[in-house]
Design brief:
Elements: H1 2-41, H2 46-74, H3 90-114, H4 118-145
Helix pairs in contact: 1-2, 1-3, 2-4, 3-4
Bound molecules: fe (ii) ion (FE2) (2 copies).
């Protein structure tokens, strides 16, 4: 009996951690969507603008997947908050985006490692691969802009 209770306590702890990680991921995706709209407006060429918009569409997809997971786990809709201050200039915006994407890769891979739920693991791994790709694009834009 003791082990049984202990085990369910561990599951509960894991579940709570996942919900708070999802909240953080949802706020991050939501903030990136706001920030990349601003960044796209300031893009120097149509080609860069279109690429940033494509990245933004990936973030919208991530937001949808994570929100659905959140709702499945908690039974309620997430309330995304814009938690990051998006810089006003194109260059500073790129630097900010590059750093944010790289941190997000680490964060998502950690979440993927920590969960035993294969669906969650797969979703965070896929999103991490997208963020890695975004980081490379932002690095490229940054190099081209300087
Ligand atoms: Fe994303
Ligand atoms: Fe991203």
């Amino acid at each position: 009996m003791f082990y049984y209770a202990d085990y369910s306590g561990e599951l509960m702890r894991q579940q709570n951690k996942l919900v708070s990680d999802l909240e953080k991921a949802i706020n991050g995706e939501y903030s990136a969507i706001q920030c990349y709209a601003k960044l796209a407006e300031r893009a120097p060429t149509d080609k860069v603008r279109e690429r940033i918009r494509e990245i933004r569409r990936d973030e919208k997809r991530h937001l949808q997947v994570f929100s659905q997971m959140y709702t499945n786990l908690t039974g309620s809709q997430p309330k995304p908050k814009d938690t990051e201050a998006c810089p006003d200039t194109y260059l500073r915006g790129l630097e900010f985006a590059l750093e944010d994407e790289q941190e997000t890769v680490d964060f998502y891979l950690t979440v993927a490692d920590e969960t035993s739920n294969l669906f969650v693991k797969d979703a965070f791994r896929r999103a991490a691969a997208d963020e890695q790709n975004h980081a490379v694009w932002f690095l490229y834009f940054l190099m081209s802009a300087k």
